[in-house]
Amino acid sequence: MSAAQAPARRDHRLARGVWYLLLALLAARMHHLRPPKPDGFRWIAPAQNYISRYERRFNAVKEYLPAHGRIGYVSDVPAERLMDDFDGSMYFYLTQYALVPLQVVNSTSEPLMIGNFHSPEAARRTLTEGDLSVIHDCRNGVFLLKETTP
Predict the structure, then answer these.
(1) Residue in 149, 141, 135 with CA at minimum distance from that of residue 65
(2) Which of 4, 30, 107, 124 sits at 20 to 30 Å (Cα–Cα) from 39?
């Protein structure tokens, strides 16, 4: 290699190194160009997520429930329409999840029933029309019920 080629080769390596450095810096800054993730993909701490909050609604009634067995379920949505109503069926399944190992069934023929209401008017209507009596009111729309016997 001649003396004239050595500085040219060094300049070429220097230029390539500068380009690599610029590309690395540009890549490091690219994350600012991406749009933010929508809220549906944001991680939410377990204590703050919807299912955990919903599950806590039933903490006050659990001490009154048997350890095993079946209990009925009544809600804002009439039993015959429960599975056709998106919110109603979602609340039913979340109630089943919250009360495991009990088997929660969409029925008013069980000795004990969970009342799960999101509207005070619906709770009053269901309790009076269904001949149900309150064993325990959790004061959050959750009731432990039994059928009123004449």
Answers:
(1) 135
(2) 30
